[in-house]
């Protein structure tokens, strides 16, 4: 009987471990004694597609973007990261496309710029090897990077990462999927900038 209970517990643990995706941000813990700052969520009508529920981002969750997660978490703390919010928008009609929009708040504009400098230098951590696409503008002196899929990898898709700052806020937009197209990016960036 004890072996059977142990076997069931082991299988349940493996199912939980295998079913979790560490790259998907989870809401920050809000248990007793935990103080979590919050920012207004990105409106569900900000961008086209089906809007998922907003997700609160703390420094630990945001650090999962980096290959060196502990290094990014340290940078976020030193830059005065306060809180972040994320919302995903997806569509399947007219081609599958996913949009992930984020607004990150820092204590000062200098802290926001420090994170933005890190992000510019570590785009590969977020969307893979990418180059700036100067034809796709972003507000406030921002930049758009484009990842072109490897023709040898049929499951890889084109991806775009736009980033810009507004005072002490950093706004980012990732567009990927088989239907991700460069001509759509400027309008998506403009819509998000107007909504936040």
Topology:
Elements: H1 2-19, E1 50-51, E2 55-57, H2 59-62, H3 69-78, E3 81-91, E4 97-106, H4 109-121, H5 123-127, E5 131-132, E6 143-147, E7 159-166, E8 169-176, H6 185-195
Antiparallel strand pairs: 1-3, 2-3, 3-4, 4-8, 5-6, 6-7, 7-8
List keywords for this structure.
196 residues; alpha+beta; Protein Transport Mog1p, Chain A; eight-stranded antiparallel β-sheet
So, CATH architecture?
Answer: 3-Layer(aba) Sandwich
Total of DSSP H or I helical runs spanning 4+ residues = 6
Q: What general outline do the C-alpha atoms trace? A: globular
Helix content, binned percent:
25-40%
Kindly report how far apart the N and C termini lie.
Answer: 58 Å
Average of per-residue pLDDT values: 83
Q: Poorly predicted ranges (pLDDT <50, ≥5 residues)?
A: 1-36
**CATH fold field value:** Protein Transport Mog1p, Chain A
SS strand fraction? 25-35%
Q: Characterize the main sheet.
A: 8 strands, antiparallel
């Amino acid at each position: 009987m004890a072996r059977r209970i142990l076997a069931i517990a082991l299988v349940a643990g493996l199912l939980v471990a295998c079913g979790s995706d560490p790259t998907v941000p989870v809401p920050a813990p809000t248990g007793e004694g935990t103080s979590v700052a919050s920012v207004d969520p990105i409106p569900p009508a900000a961008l086209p597609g089906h809007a998922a529920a907003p997700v609160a981002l703390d420094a630990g969750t945001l650090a999962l973007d980096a290959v060196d997660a502990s290094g990014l978490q340290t940078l976020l703390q030193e830059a005065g990261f306060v809180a972040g919010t994320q919302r995903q928008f997806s569509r399947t009609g007219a081609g599958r496309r996913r949009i992930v929009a984020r607004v990150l708040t820092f204590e000062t504009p200098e802290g926001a710029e420090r994170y933005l400098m890190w992000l510019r230098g570590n785009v590969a951590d977020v969307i893979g090897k990418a180059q700036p696409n100067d034809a796709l503008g972003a507000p406030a002196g921002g930049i758009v990077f484009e990842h072109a899929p490897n023709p040898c990898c049929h499951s890889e898709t084109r991806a775009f990462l736009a980033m810009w700052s507004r005072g002490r806020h950093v706004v980012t937009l990732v567009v990927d999927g088989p239907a991700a197209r460069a001509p759509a990016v400027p309008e998506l960036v403009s819509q998000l900038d107007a909504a936040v």
